[in-house]
Amino acid sequence: MDTKKKKMSVPLRINLLFFFVFLLFSLLIVRLGVVQIVYGNNYKREIERTVDVTVSHPVPRGKMFDRTGKIIVNNTPKNAIIFINEGFDQDKMMTIAKRLAALIEMKDEKIPERDKKDYWIINNPKKTDKKITAKEWKLYKNKKLTDKQIYQLKLKRITDKEISELTKEDLEILAIYRKFNSGYAFTPQIVKNENVTDEEIARVNENLESLPGVDTITDWDRSYTFGDTLKSVLGKITTSEEGLPKEQLDYYLSRGYNRNDRVGKSYLEMQYEDVLLGQKQKVKNIIDKNGNLLKSEIITEGKPGNDLVLTIDMNLQMAVEKIIVEELLKAKSLPRTGLLDRAFVVLMDPNTGDVLTMAGKVLARDEKTGKRIIQDYALGNISSSYNVGSSVKGATVLTGYKTGAIHPWSTFYDSPLYIKDTPEKSSWRNFNAYLNDIRALRVSSNVYMFKTAIEIGKGIYIPNQPLILKNKEAFRTIRDSFSEFGLGVRTGIDLPKEQIGYKGPETTSGFLLDLVIGQYDTYTPMQLAQYVSTIANGGYRIKPHLVKEIRQPSTNGELGQLVTEIHPAILNRLDLKDGWLHQVKEGFRQVMQHSEGTAYRRFGDAPYSPAGKTGTAQAFYDGPQRKNYKLPPEVMNLSLVAYAPHNNPEIAMAVVVPWAYQGNSGHTANYEIGRRVLDTYFELKKQRLKQ
């Protein structure tokens, strides 16, 4: 009996369980039906009324170090007050601006009259409305006048007297309001980041609840450890007021920049913008259709920009700049140097293209005091070009070899050339002797180079007759050959706006002779450095570069992990036969180490076995005082290219001193600068080896 009852109770329990499950599912289905049918549209509208807005917050830029790890460009923190427009209307922003103006002091700035009128209208609505006549209001009501037309009438009728009634406090409020209004919704806008005191920061922080959208942050400014040294090459960044450059606005906006972001606007800062920028912090703001902020979420944490390690040796750079200034001032005290005002030096590793020093200085006058000042012009090494004279004769001899015009040990008799309707063409002194290629370089014979050019041009020289060149491609042939050394073309340095120099437009025979002695086309000091490096390293034209490494952000002054190392880039190799380059290098060695060499007097006792070529060019002045002359005055440009040691070069140098003096003779600042610079390089190397 008990067994039978048990059998009957089991199905009953199962049925009760199924019934209970059925009820739960029924309730769930009813609930889903209510949600979908009754509240479905409400939930749909709730989803549709929210919008995701992603905002990028800037991070500090990467730093710059020299090759030994010294900080050159850093970020100095400073107080800043920002505003994020969380969908506020005009009246709300004006209210916030008035509250903020009571807490901080805004600097005086030029506020357009239109903005002052707009401010007057916002704060005097009743008075403004009275400026519209009843007839005009009727036309407006009948839609004969638009809102815009009514507003224009109001603006037109605000008087100068009414504008002049704006107080200092009004102008401060207006200055803040303009900052608020210049930004985009949910994009940080700098309100004030100059001279923000700790007291102002404290007052604002204490009142943040009544200042929606306002916040305080730590902003930064670029600081330069070595003052103006190399500053023209390091480049500049835009201010928060400038924001993105107008000419590149679309480019930067397409890459996720905000309009008020600070970016590199010149030279290294601009060239390596992608490296220095860093990774912005990305924040997702969820707002409703009315523009009200519902919540914010951090999508991506920010990361400071990567650092640049430059090839520059700042100890060497500063020492070279000091030498330039001292020698410039010394030469300036001599007669006939009224137009002398600048000098340049480039030091480069001829085997890697590392630019160790890129120095340039200009003597100028302070406009206010009239006193002499010295300005950095390192940039002039790539942005200005000059006739450099005989320094290019190494390229001339090698071009002669390549074209078959001359061969190693070829000789020419050095005596003046007399070409009809052309001034006498002669060397700097009349040798009246047969010179081979090596001695021609050693004594800097112009006539040897002239006769080489005549052979390249397949010309026939007859005294006092016109010089006719059968090879009409002679100019192009020589210039193409020179370009293989880096003369007359961009060197490829990692800086924007590099100049290539000036190519003379005339192609008559006389100018061809000027071309081969460096007195026709113009070249930059950086081109000279690349040219002499190509000879020094065995015929490889290597791209000069200022950035050695890219590293992750530094911490506590220590360099971060290596990201990218810049390796030497060979642009081309000279197509030369065995022995050709040896001839020129021997000629360069004798320039400085043979008693007949043009630079022997200054370099003959140098312990580091230098080689090089001197240059003096007759040129026409085209500097800042040109406006004072009807015709450009004739001047002498001085130059010097060198490398050392001659048998295993580790350093290459170019020195240019434009407009050095007027007349046939003067100082030798190129020699003085060059000798002191090379001495300094090897002395610094010795000191570091001891350390």
UniProtKB/TrEMBL annotation:
Pathway it works in: Cell wall biogenesis; peptidoglycan biosynthesis
GO cellular component terms, A-Z: plasma membrane
The entry's keywords: Cell membrane, Cell shape, Cell wall biogenesis/degradation, Membrane, Peptidoglycan synthesis, Transmembrane, Transmembrane helix
Pfam families: PBP_dimer (PF03717), Transpeptidase (PF00905)
GO biological process terms on file: cell wall organization; peptidoglycan biosynthetic process; regulation of cell shape
EC number: 3.4.16.4
The reaction(s) this protein catalyses: Preferential cleavage: (Ac)2-L-Lys-D-Ala-|-D-Ala. Also transpeptidation of peptidyl-alanyl moieties that are N-acyl substituents of D-alanine
One term of GO molecular function: serine-type D-Ala-D-Ala carboxypeptidase activity
Name used for this protein in its record: serine-type D-Ala-D-Ala carboxypeptidase
Domain Penicillin-binding protein transpeptidase residues, every copy: 344-678
Lineage: Bacteria, Bacillati, Bacillota, Bacilli, Bacillales
Homology family: Belongs to the transpeptidase family.
Organism field: Bacillus methanolicus (strain MGA3 / ATCC 53907)
Membrane topology: Single-pass membrane protein
Enzyme class: hydrolase
Cell location: Cell membrane; Membrane
Domain Penicillin-binding protein dimerisation: residue ranges: 58-295
